[in-house]
Structures are given as C-alpha cells and as structure tokens.
Amino acid sequence: MGRTGTRYWIFFLGTLSLSLILAAVSPGSLLVDKAMDLTGLAMRVPEWPARILRNAVARTVDLAAGERALRERIDRLEKENLSLRGLLQTTINFGSGPGVQEGHVTLRSSAAWWSEVRIDRGFKDGIRPGMGATQDGALVGKVSRVESNSAWIELLTSPSLYIPVVVEETRDLGVLNGEGDGNIWLLYVPAEKKLRIGMNLSTALVSEQLPPGIPIGKISGVGSEIGGYRIYKLSLNADLSKLYKVKVISGGKP
Amino acid sequence: MAILWFSLLARDLLQVVFSGTAIVPDFTVLALVWIAVFRYEDSAPLFIPAFATGLFWDLRWTALPGVTSSAYILIVAGSAWAWSHLPPGRRGNPILFFAWAIAAHGLSSFLPALLSGHGLGLHSPLVSQQGMALACVLGLTALFIRQGRTRHD
Q1: Does this model's pTM top 0.80?
Q2: Within this chain, do residues A173 and A146 fall inside the same structural domain, yes or no?
Q3: Closest residue of A to B22, CA-based?
C-alpha cells in the first residue's frame, strides 16, 4: 500500500469512526443540544434573508386567499377566550393578561420525536418555562427550556410530562401522561367513575401560566384498572404529526 | 471545494424558505459525488469536508449528529472506489453517473429516516424530495456530459 493509499484509509476510517461515535453518543446529550442551539444561533444571520422571504411569501399567500383577516380574527378571539377563561377562575391572576406568541418549529429530534420540539421564539420574545403551547387552539405541550432566541416545548406525549386535566362532561379530575411512543393516557380516575369514549378533556386549574379550559382531546379507549383507579386512552385534538407552528400562551405569572 | 460549501448554504437557505412545506434536495451530496468522481485518484482530502458538511447539517436540521456525515463519507468512498475500478472508457458514461448520483442521494436522504424510523412511507416528504432530486440530477448529468466533451476537446 503506497503513501497515498495509507493517507486515504487514515482519512476515511478516521472521519467515519468519528461520525459513528457521534451518532452513538449524541442522542439525549445536553452538549449536543447546546451545539444544536449554537448552530441555530450562528445561522440566524445568514438565514435572515431566507426567513424574510418565507414570511413575505406566507403573508402574500395569506393576503391573496383572504386568510390574514381571518387569522387576526382567530388570534383576537383566542386572546379573548383565554381572558374569559381567566376571569371565570377568579382565584387566578394572569398579570398583564394572557397573549399568544406564534413560533415555527425549527427542530424535532428523531431520538425524542414524541418528547420535545424547538421553536424560533425565546426569552427575548417573552417566552418563559411552564407556558402552554397550542396548535389550532388545542394544547400540544409546555415550554420546558428557554434560550434567548429559542425555546423547547415538551409535548403531551412525553413520558416525563404530567398535566392535570378535567373531563368536561363530568368535571372529574385526572392526570394526563404520555408513553413516549405517541400513546397518551388519562391516569388517577377512580374505578367507580364511568367515563365514556368521546368525552372531552381540557386543562384543569393548576398553575398561573397554564390557563384552565384549553381543549386537549377525547377519551378514545378504556384501559385496565390498577389499584382502584382506571386508566383511559386519549386521542389528542392537536395533530402532532403535522406540528409546524405553535402558539405559546404568554403573559401568565411564573 | 467552494462548490461544496456553496451547495450546503444554498440547501440550508432553501430549507428555511420551504420549512413546513417540503424537504429540499440534498445539493451537498450531489456536489460531493461530482467532486469525488472527478478526483477519484486523490479523494482523501474530501473526507474532512464531507464530515464537516454532514455534521453541520445534522446539528442544524436532523438532530442526529454523525448520521448524515457517515452517509457523506461512505458516498465519497463509494464514488472514488467505483470510478477508480471503472474501465477508463466508461468513466465519462452519463448513465452511470446519473444512476450513482440518484443512489447516493437516496442513501443520504433515507439513512437518517431508516435509523430513526420516522418519515418513511409512500406519502412521506422524502418521496417528493427524491422527485425534486431527480430533476437536479438530470441537470447535473447534463453538466457532466458537457464537462466530458470539454475535456475531450
């Protein structure tokens, strides 16, 4: 093997092994998360014209279809709806009143597909940990970490997220939890309560950042009984397979 | 080598423009195939740029660092190996170039999806990406024919 051949194999095997080691150790690594955030931050400047173009095209299309006015109306109604929900819960003080911040999903790791997404809104835009995120008015998750220009949203399907919910038809309370594979369950409902398939769930009064009454989904199946409590399978109103944009409910108290 | 970084930037910017709508073709892998088939005798200096561009893409878009870079490195090695083992008369064959470029593009697109198990299926955006890539590879093959004639002249 000549010198050129040796050099070839050194470069080939060196770079390939480095790539494979990275692929093996990177899932779930905080260091890699930081590197991804840094890359996103570094590319904000060169990508700026592309973002402007994307937003301009989207605005033009919206205008042409007459959707812009409708969207503004929906935004206004959503804000009004959130305020009314806050008013209904007289013990809650939502500070300056809830608002919404729309963010594009910029990263969804395959290794944590059902756990979290990153959006292009962050601390500078008023996003804080604990705020709720919605898609077409239905809850999709909660903000878990915030950087200056981006934020991570933990999805309802994440196995580490527990959200207190209320069954709207019966006012029974329970806790929603994901399995990490797209399935989601309602926990801690006493076995004697007979909940039916199709009953609706919404957020319960639990924190000053997540308003009560945000629609979540429906009961889609009855599970087993464990220790006097029955679990129920849920289907979400939000479509997590088509999660490109979310609205973060801002303005609550931390 | 500038063409490689230019293709990466172009792909990144186009992906920002089309985010949520479509997955743009992998221009970087096409640039790598192009460079590798013309430099098959000394392809060693290509591995580090291939690794760097793949890692950048993984950090920016796929969130699986190492996967795209592995695919790029294998494609460079495969291109150099294939072209060095072809008889001299067939190295300028546009059909071979077209077939190899399409296969390389498919590998780099589907490898992350295969490893993660997401984004597969007939209605996947990856399928429409392959359709757009087909048009790009046809254009690149035309350039390959032109390049071959220029060299011949």
Answers
A1: no
A2: no
A3: A244
